[in-house]
Please model this.
Amino acid sequence: MTTLLDDDILLDSYSRAVTSAAARITPSVVNVGGGSGFFFTPDGFILTNSHVVERKSSVDVTTTDGSRFHGTVVGDDPHSDLAVVRVSAPEQTAATFADSDAIKAGQLAIAVGSPYGFQCTVTAGVISALGRTMRAKSGRLIDNVIQTDAALNPGNSGGPLVNSRGDVIGVNTAIILPAQGICFAIAINTAKFVASRLIRDGRIERAYIGVAGQHVALHRRVIRFYDLSNVAGVLVVSIEKGSPAEDAGVREGDVIVSYGGQAIGSVDDLHRILTGEQIGVASDIEAIRISERIARRIVPVRAPAP
Model:
């Protein structure tokens, strides 16, 4: 039988986890225009949402100590709703990234941001679900989105979603109104890839095959039978009409396991391969369809402009 003392101990443990995580991430969090963001390098690079910077070339940035900076938009990718801003402010406290592929539904999730201008507001909840898809303002489906019930409000966009250690697992991006407790964040593994390309090139040119998918584990019997090197694949949730995937004969329900001879274990793996260099290049895409392994020739096209 649970005693009052037991309840107090549990509450203290939960409170300690939230307060320690918030204390670790808060120095990295900034206000970016009408939204939020966070330093991910000590020399002033900030990760935020594309819809926060709204195609601007510069934005106002305010740190937790009240310092104000002129921020330059290094790169903006509406397809993933991510952007990178830089300020001339060295020796910043950079956030630490977790592995978003390793998180599980039910684990603690803490959001920090500036909803309605209330800077460094902390909310807590759990990871409600993984592998969600949502449509960016550009019209492109964003895959592998994290659903959480940590309360988000206008102004939280671009802020970090962290685990109990204060490591970033996602970039808060959207809420569903008037629903309560249904909020979304872009997985940090996706954000790391996008941010690196934005810093290098200022933009991301993508190859496009027209599938929306989510990460799924493969059964051990399937792995052994087909001698696969990966333990997971990408379940095709939907296919765009007239897309290269439809032309190639890919179907909803297929589980993609290989592209161009490279193992595909997650949506992020597929995104990493489908760079601008793949536009117009024919490759084999392999998938598990019910009980057989199929291969189709596919030719990516340039991703539609946002």
Q: What stands out?
A: The longest helix spans residues 4-25. The chain has six helices and 20 strands. The mean pLDDT is 90.
